[in-house]
Amino acid sequence: MKEDNTTKISDPKSSQDSQSSQSSQSTNSTALAEPQAKPQGKRQDASQDTSQSNPNHNNPQKDPDSQSRAPQSQASQESQVSQASQASQPQTKAQGSQGAQDFVPPQLNVSKVTGRLIGSIVATAGICFMGILTETMMNVLFPHLMQEFGIDAATVQWVTSACILTIAAVIPLSAFLKKRFSFRQVFAAAIAVGIVGGLIAMWSPSFTVLLVARILQGLSTGICMPLMFNVVLEQSPRAKLGVLMGVCNLVVGLAPALGPTFGGLMITIMPWRHIFLIIIVFIALFGVLGFLCLRQSSPVDRHATLSIAQTVCVAGGFALLIFGLQKTGSWIEQAVVGAPLGSLPAVCLVSVLGGIALIAVFVRLSLGSGNPLLNLRVLRHPALRCAVAAAVFVQFIQLSLSYVVPNFSQMGLGATSLQAGLTVLPGALIGAMLTALSGRVLDRRGPLLPIGCGLTVLLCGLVFQAVATPALTIGGLMLGYALCEIGFSNTYSNTFTVALRTVPLAENPDGNAAFNTMQQFGCAFGTTVSATIVSVFQAVEQNKGASFAAATTTGAHWAYIAAVIAGLIAACLIAKELKHDRREYQPVAL
């Protein structure tokens, strides 16, 4: 009831319906008549149509039709004022602890990009950036962690996979968190958990404790990432959506690329534990900025409930599936070298099948629930459905490269940690500059140009590295990675933006949660598969008498081939998305 009343206030389409049922009406009473809106179910599609056809849809008072109508009678105006006052009461209650000055109904104050909005984006994006940066920073530290804790490559990759799986498990909760808590409360939780995780990582006396710290850091990132996108989707002008979404996805794309560079530089000047202190400082600074700038743009439902069964199923399903895939790699590795398998095959089968079963149960529960954890019905939109599937494979590629490039350069080409980090720097910087630019091209020219060019360059970079792996030098590796980052920067963000533009505004949080959940699964899947492939071929080739460097090169070659296959699948899915989107998308003239 609270959300319905708030929605009615901000619905220009419903305002027009109300106006047409009256004999005469003044400009000032137009906004007051908005509480007489139609039910929310009908409002969503109408709002979307209006936003595309009416340039004044964000400001009903500027509608020339409404300005030309005769003034309304005094009695009718008083009645409408009373209705508006009644409609605003549930909204005030829903705000809870949020001050009235912080609450901005969606789509009312979105005519320009304000300084407060920029500060909110910088703060939330900064937390996400530090969290994702740490994911791939750890890849450069793998040799140091393997030596200090006495573990192998298949085990050490869990400091990344555990974090990514936590993010994937938390992101489905984002729709619930958005309904139940204010933006500032969610942001405060992300800050607190991130700082605690960093402190534990600094102290970690064992690999197990380090894993716990990484899980907490993943929890912080998983909480803050959907918040970042929700702020943009609710508070940004429609005409600037592509650019601002590009800036947000710049964080998602740039941080993994800069992680190895940052880690390689830091490990040369300080112990790896001290790196987490720097991360804690930045988290605290972004936290201060967020508390100063974040505002509430949607009502809070204090009575929203969380489905424990659905939470357990989605989190357990993803975790078991990734764990089973990693153990399958160990199974293959031990079978090749002739080591005893013991119960390993049974563990692999139970984990993979159990993960699939739990995910199937989650889908069943979600579709049959009136209060789903993750609203899978939003996937009825074909463009979003294709984009969500494509996100898995695009992020598979990104995280595969983030694992293979620094580790191949160190273990295969003999580079230092700093050199390995610098290998990805040019591509990361070029990709960063192009991400926001490609969003502007999307706003002006539509999706075909940036996404088509991006996919082409991405596939060229992957094929180049796969074919030339045995002959690659640091320079060649740098070139191939730069091509992939150029393609990624033009593809990923725009695919996300185009998909959400085909979804009614009220369902954007659900589409956001579905997209981010699956892209995090793609991250974990990419890291696990690439690490498993490299580890298996290291064992296989060394068993044949090859050197460790040569064995690593062979493993990297096959990891690149897996990335090429993922790229081809992603290209097919994105082409299908654009086909579904073609009839609905209308470029905005800037």
Automatic annotation (TrEMBL):
<feature type="transmembrane region" description="Helical">
    <location>
        <begin position="386"/>
        <end position="405"/>
    </location>
</feature>
<feature type="transmembrane region" description="Helical">
    <location>
        <begin position="241"/>
        <end position="269"/>
    </location>
</feature>
<feature type="region of interest" description="Disordered">
    <location>
        <begin position="1"/>
        <end position="104"/>
    </location>
</feature>
<feature type="transmembrane region" description="Helical">
    <location>
        <begin position="448"/>
        <end position="468"/>
    </location>
</feature>
<feature type="transmembrane region" description="Helical">
    <location>
        <begin position="117"/>
        <end position="138"/>
    </location>
</feature>
<feature type="transmembrane region" description="Helical">
    <location>
        <begin position="557"/>
        <end position="575"/>
    </location>
</feature>
<keyword id="KW-0813">Transport</keyword>
<feature type="transmembrane region" description="Helical">
    <location>
        <begin position="275"/>
        <end position="294"/>
    </location>
</feature>
<protein>
    <submittedName>
        <fullName>Efflux-type transporter</fullName>
    </submittedName>
</protein>
<feature type="domain" description="Major facilitator superfamily (MFS) profile">
    <location>
        <begin position="120"/>
        <end position="579"/>
    </location>
</feature>
<feature type="transmembrane region" description="Helical">
    <location>
        <begin position="306"/>
        <end position="324"/>
    </location>
</feature>
<feature type="transmembrane region" description="Helical">
    <location>
        <begin position="186"/>
        <end position="203"/>
    </location>
</feature>
<feature type="transmembrane region" description="Helical">
    <location>
        <begin position="344"/>
        <end position="365"/>
    </location>
</feature>
<feature type="compositionally biased region" description="Low complexity">
    <location>
        <begin position="67"/>
        <end position="95"/>
    </location>
</feature>
<feature type="transmembrane region" description="Helical">
    <location>
        <begin position="417"/>
        <end position="436"/>
    </location>
</feature>
<dbReference type="Pfam" id="PF07690">
    <property type="entry name" value="MFS_1"/>
</dbReference>
<dbReference type="GO" id="GO:0022857">
    <property type="term" value="F:transmembrane transporter activity"/>
</dbReference>
<feature type="transmembrane region" description="Helical">
    <location>
        <begin position="158"/>
        <end position="177"/>
    </location>
</feature>
<feature type="compositionally biased region" description="Low complexity">
    <location>
        <begin position="15"/>
        <end position="26"/>
    </location>
</feature>
<feature type="compositionally biased region" description="Polar residues">
    <location>
        <begin position="47"/>
        <end position="59"/>
    </location>
</feature>
<keyword id="KW-0472">Membrane</keyword>
<dbReference type="InterPro" id="IPR011701">
    <property type="entry name" value="MFS"/>
</dbReference>
<dbReference type="InterPro" id="IPR036259">
    <property type="entry name" value="MFS_trans_sf"/>
</dbReference>
<keyword id="KW-1133">Transmembrane helix</keyword>
<feature type="transmembrane region" description="Helical">
    <location>
        <begin position="209"/>
        <end position="229"/>
    </location>
</feature>
<dbReference type="GO" id="GO:0005886">
    <property type="term" value="C:plasma membrane"/>
</dbReference>
<dbReference type="InterPro" id="IPR020846">
    <property type="entry name" value="MFS_dom"/>
</dbReference>
<keyword id="KW-0812">Transmembrane</keyword>
